[in-house]
Amino acid sequence: MKHSRGWSWILWVIVVILIASSCAQPAAPAKEAAPAKEAAPAAKAAPEEVELVVWAEANNVEHWRADGPVKAAEKVTDYKLKVTGVNDDAGWGDYKKKFTLAADAGEAPDIILSGHEDVPVWANAGYIVQFDECRNKYPEFNDVIDSLWSSVTWQGKLWGVPQDTEARPMFFNKTKLKEMGWTDEQIAELPERIKTGDFTLDDMIATAKEAIAKGVVEPGYGYWHRPRKGGDFLQYYAAYGGRLYDPKQDKLVVTKDALEKWYAFQRRVVEEGITPENFIGTEWSIWHDTVSHGKVLFWNGGIWQWADWAANYVQDLGGQDYLFSFVGYALQPSGIKGKPGVTLSHPLVYMITSEKASGKHNQDAACALLAKTTTPEINTLHAVGSTHLGILKSQAKYPDYVSDRFLSDTLYMLDYNFYQPNHVMYGPYFDIVWEFMVEAENGTRSPAEAAEAAVQQLQSELGEYLIVE
Amino acid sequence: MSEDIARMGQCKGPNRLLDHLRRAWGPFLFMAPATILVLIFFLAPVIIIIGISLTNMSSATGFKNWAWIGLQNYGKIFRNPKSGTIFRNTVFYVLVTLSLFNVGMALVVALLTTHVPRRGGFLFRSLWLLPRITPSVVYIMMWNYIAADAPYGILNRHLLTPLGVKPTNWVPAQPWAFVILTNGFIGASFGMIIFSSAIESIPRDYMIAALVDGCSLWQRIRYVILPMIRWPLLFVTTYQTLSLLTSFEYILLLTDGQFNTEVWSLWAYHRALNNYWGNFQWGFGAALATILVIVGIVMAVVYMRYFQFTELVQEPRIEAL
C-alpha cells in the first residue's frame, strides 16, 4: 500500500508538471529572432539572400496574389530575395485560422494577404507591423488610389497595402429585357438610372415580376442574390440607409429601421416569386451555371466572378464574348428613390508580419518586395486575370488594363463604394445579422421579429462595442 | 509471518525484493502508458479549456495578451437569447438521431442481417458501411445534389416532380430531416457492427432452446437477444450520446448551422475557430465547450446508473463456480 501511494504521488507530480507546462505556454516569451544571416542587410552592397514566404487565399484564376510577389522579387535591388508564394483555396475561415495559429507559434509567413477587416484583429494581437514607415520609404506606394488607404487604416495608422479591390454589381440579362419589350436605349440607360437612384430595388422587383408574368423567365428566376453567406447582402442594408460603423467612437452601429427594411426586402423577393423558396444554401456550382447561361433576369454578384464564368462555365460558348453578348452590369439599386446605387468593395491587403509572429527579422525586405509588387505591371496581371479592379492610379492609363473592357466599364463603381468596418468585433456582428437575415428570408420569423431579435443578439454579444440607432 | 519473510530473504536475497516490486508495481507499470496518454490527451485539455474559458482570449488578444475575466463568458452564455434555442436544438438532434438511427436502426439492421443467410447479411452490412468510409465532404455534396432544387436535384427530378410535388431546395426546406438522415445513416453503422457481433456471439444453445420452447421471433428478441446484449447496448448508447453531443462535422458541411440547425458544439466551433470575418473568440468558445463537457459527464453518469453498470461488469457466475 505504501508503495502504491508513493507511485500515485509520483504520477500526480507528472500530471501537475504536464498541466503546468501546458498552461504556461501562453505566457512563454516570443520566439527568438532568426539567426543574423536572415536579417535584412543594411547596406546595398553584396546583399545576402533573404528568404520570404507569402501566403494568399486564391483560386486558380487568382494565383497572382502569391505569384505576383514571387515575380516582383526580380525587380528588388536592395535585397537578394528568394520568395516562396503559397496560394491557398481552403476557404477564408480555415485560412485565417491557419494564419492565427501559425502567428502565435512564431511560424507565420513574412507577408500575409487577407481581407482588410483583419487589420484591427491582427494588429491588436501583434501579428502584423505598422505600414506607415514602409509606405513613406518607397515611391511606388504613392500610386495607390488614395481612398483605398482608408481600408488599411486602424487607429489612425496604416497596417498594410491594398492588393486588389472589386465591385459587386447588379448583373442583368439584356436579352431577356429586350424580350420584355425594352429598347436598346432603355437597356443602355439602366446603369445610369441606377446610379442616379431613378431605378430602385422596388423597380427591380416590379420588372422581375413582369418578366415572369410574360413568360420571359421561369418563376423564381427573376432575381437571384448570392446563394451563401457573404458581405454582398450588406449592400441592401446600405441601400436602405443602414450604418455599420461610427469612426469617432470606434463602435459598430446597427440602424434598426434599415435592418428591418433590408430583411423585408429579402423576404419580399421570395413572396413575390422572383427568387425561389429556400434559396439560401443552393450549391455555388448550380448558381454559377444558371446565371452564366442566361436563365436569370437580375442577379447580384461580384466582378471577380466574370473571369470564373468565362473560364469555367461558358468557355465552350465563347467565354467573355458570350457573356458580353447578353450580360449588363450596374451598381446595386438603392432602396430609396433618388439615392444613388451602391456597391461593396472588399479590398484584400498585403500585411507584413511582426518578428514575434514570423520568428524572422525580414520586415524591411518584405517592405521592399511589396513596393515592387505594387506596380501596374504586376497588379494588372492579377486584375485582368481574375477580373478584379486595379488599385493604382496609373492603371487607368496602363494599356493592358485599359484594354480590358469589363474592368474599364466597372471602374466608376469605386466612386459609389463602401467598405466593411475595421473593428475587432465585426466578425460576430456580421454572423448575427446574417443569421437573422436567413430566418427572415426563409419566413421563420417576420422581418420585424428577425430585426428585433438580431438587435437583442447584437446587444448581448457585443455590449459596449455597439451603438443601436 | 515476518520470520518467514526473513527466511525467504536469506534464501533468495535480491530476487525476493524484485519479486515484491514486480507484484506491487507491475500493474501500474502496465497501465502507465495508457494512463499517461489519458492524462495528456483527455484530462489536460479539459483543464486547459476550463482555464481558457475564464479569459478573454481571442484572435484580437493572441495567446499572449489575454486577461482573466472570471465567469464573464458564462454570464454571456446564460444571458444570450440564443442559448435556449441552441440547447433545445442539441437535445432534439441527439435524442432523435440516437433513438431512430444510432441505436434504433443499428439494432434493426443487426437483427435482420443476423437472421438471413450469413453471406447476404455480411454483404448488406458492408454496403451500409460505405457512407462511413466515404470522405465526409463528398458524402454531403452528394446529399446536396440529391436535395437540390429542380432541375438539378435527383429527388425533385426523378421522384417528387413526377408525383406532382412542388420542387424546392429540400435541405433548407426540411433542414432537420436531412441533418438527422445524414448523421443517422453513418452513425447506425457503428451500432450495427457492435450489435451484429454481440448477437452472433450468443451461444446457439439458447436460440435452439427458445425455438424448442416455441418462442416467436419477437419473443426470441425480447427475452433472449436483448437481455444478452445489454452491455453492447449500454456501450453504444453512452458512446453515441457523447459522440453526437460533440459532433458537428456533417451539420457544418450540410447547413453550417443555418436554418436553425446550430447545435451547441457547432456554436462553440463557430465562435472559437471559424467565423466568416475572423476574430475567433477562444475564451467564449471554451466556455461553451466546458458546458458541453459537464453535460457529457452528467449524461455518462446517468447512463451508468440507469443501465446498472456495476452489475454488468460483475464476474460471470458460471466461471466463478
Question: Can you lay out the helices and strands and say which pair or pack?
Answer:
The complex is a heterodimer of chains A (469) and B (321).
Chain A: H1 2-24, E1 49-57, H2 64-72, E2 80-88, H3 92-104, E3 111-115, H4 118-125, H5 132-137, E4 153-154, E5 157-158, E6 161-164, E7 170-173, H6 174-179, H7 184-196, H8 201-213, E8 223-224, H9 234-239, E9 245-246, E10 251-254, H10 256-271, H11 284-292, E11 298-300, H12 304-312, H13 320-326, E12 327-330, E13 343-344, E14 348-352, H14 355-358, H15 363-373, H16 376-386, H17 399-402, H18 405-410, E15 417-418, H19 426-442, H20 447-462, E16 466-468
Parallel strand pairs in A: 1-2, 1-3, 8-11, 10-16, 13-15
Antiparallel strand pairs in A: 3-14, 4-5, 6-14, 7-11, 7-12, 9-10
Chain B: H1 2-12, H2 14-53, H3 72-79, H4 81-113, H5 118-128, H6 130-133, H7 136-147, H8 154-160, H9 170-173, H10 175-200, H11 204-212, H12 217-228, H13 230-246, H14 249-254, H15 264-272, H16 282-306, H17 309-312, H18 317-320
Helix pairs in contact in B: 2-16, 3-16, 4-5, 4-10, 4-13, 10-13, 13-16, 15-16
How does this model look, in words?
The complex is a heterodimer of chains A (about 475) and B (about 325). Chain A is an alpha/beta fold and about 475 residues long. Chain A has two domains: about 45-165 and about 345-420, Periplasmic binding protein-like II (D-Maltodextrin-Binding Protein, domain 2, 3-Layer(aba) Sandwich), CATH 3.40.190; about 170-345 and about 425-469, D-Maltodextrin-Binding Protein, domain 2. Chain A is about 45% helix and about 15% strand. Chain A has a five-stranded mixed sheet, with helices on both faces. Chain A has a four-stranded mixed sheet with strand order 8-11-7-12. Mean pLDDT of chain A is about 90; it is low at about 1-5 and about 20-45. Chain B is mostly helical and about 325 residues long. Chain B has a domain at about 85-270: MetI-like fold. Chain B has helices at about 1-10, 15-55, 70-80, 80-115, 120-130, 130-135, 135-145, 155-160, 170-175, 175-200, 205-210, 215-230, 230-245, 250-255, 265-270, 280-305, 310, 315-320. The mean pLDDT of chain B is about 90. At the A-B interface, helix 1, helix 3, helix 4, helix 19 and helix 20 of A face helix 2, helix 7 and helix 9 of B.
